[in-house]
Structure formats: C-alpha cells, structure tokens
Amino acid sequence: MTSMRAIRKRREGIQNTEEIARAMKLAATARLKGARERAEAFRPFAGQMEELFAFVFRGAEAGGMNLQPRPSSGKRVVLAVTSDRGLAGGYSQNVVRLIAESGLTPENTVVYTAGRKGRESLEKKGYPIKGDFSWKDSAGAQKRAEEIAQVLMEEFSWESGDEFYLAYTVFVNPVRQVPRLLRLFALDSEEKQWEDQGAGVMEITLEPEEEELLRALKAGYAAAMIWTAFLEAEASENGARMTAMEGAKEHAEEMLKEMNLAYNRLRQGAITRELTEIMAGSGGIF
Fold first, then answer.
1. Between vectors from CA 201 to CA 206 and to CA 199, what angle results, nearest 5°?
2. pLDDT bracket for residue 205 (50, 70, 90)
3. Who's near 251: CB < 8 A, 6+ residues apart?
4. Quick check: 50 pLDDT over 90?
5. Gap between the Cα atoms of 88 and 246, Å rounded
6. Which of 150, 183, 213, 226 has the smallest number of CB atoms closer than 10 Å to its CB?
7. SS3 content of the chain, % helix, strand, coil (to 5)
8. Prior bond to 71 cis, omega within 30?
9. Arithmetic mean of pLDDT, 214-232
10. What is the mean pLDDT of residues 241-257?
11. 28-46: pLDDT as tens digits
C-alpha cells in the first residue's frame, strides 16, 4: 500500500513538472506570435519566387531547351528541417516518418539535416547523414538558407536527373502543423508550382537569355524555399510545443487531483485509526 510520505514526494515531483510545463508553454506562446507573423509575411514572396522560376522555365522551354521531366536515374537529395530540442509532441518525428514512408530509402537518398532531433531519428532508421546544418532562429535564417543552398546546389545535379526535396512542417495554427515533402525543380505539369498561370497574356523579353537566367535563378530559388521552410518550421515548432506543454500541464493537474484524493483518503484513514485506538484505550481505563 502506498504511504502518505510516498504520495507527498510524488506530488512534489508532479507539481514541479506542472510548473515547468506552464513556463515552457508561456515561452512558446510568446515566441509563436512573432514566428507566425514572419512565416505568414514571407509566404507571398516564396510564392512569387515559385512563379518567377516557373515563368522563366516556360520561356526557356518555349525557346527550345529540353527541360521536360526525365526518368529518375540520379540520386535523391533531402534536407530535413526539424528541431534541436524535444518536448514538442510529434513535431520532429512527423517529418522523419514522412521521409521514411515516401519511398526515399537509405539506399537511394543523400540526407542533410537541420535539427538534432531529425538527425538522430534518421540515423536510427539507417539513413546516411552527409551534412548537418544548425540554425537557431529566424534572425539568421536568410543568410543560413543562402549558405545551405550553395552547398546543396553542388550536391544536386538537375541535368543528371537528381531529385531535390525539402522536408519540413507547414504551420496552420497552434494545434495543427502539417509535415510537407516538397520536391524542388520538379518540372512536372501536375505540380502546383509549375501551373501555367497567365501564360500568353503578354510577351516578355528576358535579359539575359532564358537558359542563363534559369541557371542563375536556381540557387536563389532554392535559398528562398529553404528560408520559407525555416520560418514555417520555427512557427510550427513553437505551436507544437505550446500545445504539448498545455497537454502536459493539464495531465499534471489531473494527476495532482488524484494524488490529493489518495492522500486525503490515507490521512482520513490514519485519523480514524487513531481515534479508534484512543476510544479503545479509554474504554480499558474505565
């Protein structure tokens, strides 16, 4: 039978856990507001970068360049953006699961990570990690995204049929974050990013030539997509942590109620036994 002393000790531990969860929830809530605003403000720019690259691609193809999708004969390059810290529910694991279930196997995939949790989980699943990029917050996200894009552009070869993926989480709201596997440079009419929007409305002359401009845009486009992945990931992580800590706090409160109830029952039982012993002793005296 659990003693009152054991219950008091366990109750103190649960109270400490509740205080930690409450503090972490408040910190995540405070960070979420700015992270959400930055992610939402950047989305139009990312969409314009996609449209610009698609527009130049269409112009280059119309000019005679052979840019149609070719069979995947090259390697697959993946950048997985996750968290460096835990206590965010299934935030990082959802990205890892998405990669593992997408057909990107350890045998045919070159993996780069941005986030310790994703790196550790992917290593356990047998994925070889060729590089790990640390990034702290949105303050240095742009510069870091440009640096990473340069490295990955050296790894990725469009002409050889390589595939380049970004695995990250899109922020929807504090309780919903959607993991996304985005294939960049996917010259496929079925991809939304390559839809023909407004083609033929007017004729535009590009300077320099389409092929040169397309080549120059590749690194900038990749950097913009990595940057938006960082911003979305930052908002998603804080939202996931806020929700997870709210759940942990509520669970701790429920456990405290149960502990208090059990403690009061034991205390009442102990008082009843003491009264019974006193009454029994008094009866013996008289």
1. 70
2. low
3. none
4. no
5. 11
6. 150
7. 60, 15, 25
8. no
9. 88
10. 92
11. 999 999 999 999 999 999 9
Give CA–CA dist 182/165, Å, rounded: 5
- What is the spatial distance between Cα 110 and Cα 106, in angstroms, rounded to a whole number? 8
Give the HSE-up count for residue 61: Cα atoms under 13 Å, Cβ half-sphere: 15
Structure tokens at 235: 């908002």
Characterize 140-166 residue by residue with b for buried, 16 or more Cβ atoms within 10 angstroms of its Cβ, and e for exposed. ebbebbbebbeebbeebebeeebbbbb
Structure tokens at 15: 């109270």
